[in-house]
Amino acid sequence: MILTVDRLGHLGDGIAQGPDGPVFAPQMLPGEVVEGVLLGDQLTDIRILTPSANRIRPPCNHARTCGGCVVQQASDPFVAGWKQGIVERALEGQGISALFRPILTSPPRSRRRATLAARRTKNGALIGFHARASDMLVAVPNCQLLHPDLLASFPALEAMVRLGGSRSSEMSFTVTRSLAGPDVVADGGKPADALFQMDLARLAEANGIARLTWNGEIAALRAQPMQRFGRALVAPPPGTFLQATEQGEQALLQGIALAVGSARRITDLFAGVGTFSLPLAERAEVRAVEGEAAMLAALDKGARSAEGMHRITTETRDLFRRPLEPDEFNGAEAVVIDPPRAGAEAQSHALARSTIPVIAVVSCNPVTFARDAKILLAGGYRLDWVQVVDQFRWSSHVEIVSRFSR
Ligand SMILES: C[S@@+](CC[C@H](N)C(=O)[O-])C[C@H]1O[C@@H](n2cnc3c(N)ncnc32)[C@H](O)[C@@H]1O
After folding, report:
1. Catalytic amino acids?
2. Among 166, 269, 309, 360, which has the highest number of CB atoms less than 10 A from its own CB?
3. Contact 281, 309 (CB under 8 A)
4. Distance CA 16, CA 41 (A)
5. Atom of ligand 1 nearest to the CA of 336
């Protein structure tokens, strides 16, 4: 069957109009004429008859098999336009149009945090990502996405799989680059009795792993896995959220700084371990609110280790169930809000009733971002600008920073 791809879906598949509805053509680009075999709504065994001018040779030699990246075959300007388009359409869906600041894309080999799958094999161990729409594991020794420090941890991870993995089930490793070496969270391995724990500790020591968390328990702590946020050094609890790339984090911070301007009292909602709170506290008083007490304890310790900071206070609070009410902002001149994928519906309703002059909204989900933006606009806020920060290069994920004011 010959089809012409007419658009890219929000998960990165080419979509063509087939005889019975939309047909998904993985790794194909709009405008391409392709020939393939139709299996349900999927086009398989695809041959490109007319390539798109936006098609490039994927920079990674795992691109054909690995499911980790979905748009390596497209040029950077094309991907930038596609990602911005996803946000524009989500906003249009809520009847909102916006001014967009230029997209900022993180460079290749900059992901400082990633979750990999692993399995013991007949001859050793396999670490990698799953193949596209499959549970098959693909080894990715030349991955163009991960920071070289993460790739350098693969031999140590493989050694852990050989020691504590199984051939019948998968393990997962969340690896985060830290100032003291990789911070590794391993799940799905065999239970760690005292003897095995000593093996793990030796392995971590020999391979420069800063901290190893095995099935939820810290199995080795060679050095605190510090992260730097402005002047402050923070040791995040195992597995907690961090922005995906350092460049993405800086881009978000620049957007936030532009949004909040010279505000002297800032409330940071969904503050995590202080990614934004700590740099902001170098020039403003900050109140950090977050659901996880352990994250705030790390933030607080980091704040106390830094010199010349403004006052920074923390508050553990479930902002879904108990959003900060308008009379609780205590004279804040700006709010920064960076909720999880579910967005911040309840908190947005409360903000919409507030008199806060400026709100910097950060989001990793265009759909909930648009829903919450509509709530703020209904409360009288203006949407001044939106900026896409692509720290999930070659994936279908989108990160947003934006400014609302009244
Ligand atoms: C996208 S992360 C942002 C963290 C931080 N702003 C950063 O950039 O590192 C979302 C944060 O919201 C927190 N969170 C999730 N659900 C929450 C809730 N119901 N109430 C308060 N915080 C919550 C998570 O623990 C996480 O730290």
Report:
1. 364
2. 360
3. yes
4. 10
5. 6
Question: Rounded to an integer, what is the distance from CA 15 to the centroid of its chain?
Answer: 25
Instruction: Tell which residue, 299, 295, 327, has the closest CA to residue 313.
Output: 299
Residue 113 in this model has a pLDDT that exceeds 90: yes
- Tokens 């060679």, located at residue: 222
> Which residue among 254, 260, 269, 270 has the greatest number of ligand 1 atoms within 8 angstroms of its CB, and so is best to mutate?
270
E strand or H helix that includes residue 65:
none
The alpha carbon of 328 and the centre of ligand 1 are apart by a number of angstroms equal to 19
Mean pLDDT value of segment 389-404? 96
Scored b (16 or more CB within 10 A) or e, 95-131 reads eeebeebebbbbebbbbbbbebbbbbeeeebbbbbbb
**CA–centroid distance, residue 329 to ligand 1 (Å):** 18
Here the tokens at position 51 are 């390539």
138 and 126 Cβ atoms separated by less than 8 Å:
no
**Residues in contact with ligand 1 (CB, 6 Å cut-off):** 241-243, 270-272, 275-276, 290-292, 295, 318-320, 338-340
Residue 347 · residue 337 · CB < 8 Å: yes
Amino acid at 93: G
Phi-psi region of 98 (alpha: psi -120 to 50; beta: other; left: phi over 0): beta
> Which DSSP string corresponds to 178-207?
-TTS-EEEEESS----HHHHHHHHHHHHHT
Q: Which residue has the tokens 């900059």?
A: 110
Decide: helix, strand or coil at residue 163: helix
Write down the pTM of the prediction: 0.96
Instruction: Give the C-alpha separation, 54 to 75, whole Å.
Output: 5
Pocket test for ligand 1, best of 228, 229, 241, 348 (most atoms within 8 A of CB): 241
Q: Which residues contact 81 (CB under 8 A, 6 or more apart)?
A: none
Average pLDDT score over residue span 31-58: 96
Distance 332 CA to ligand 1 centre (A): 20
3-state secondary structure at position 289: strand
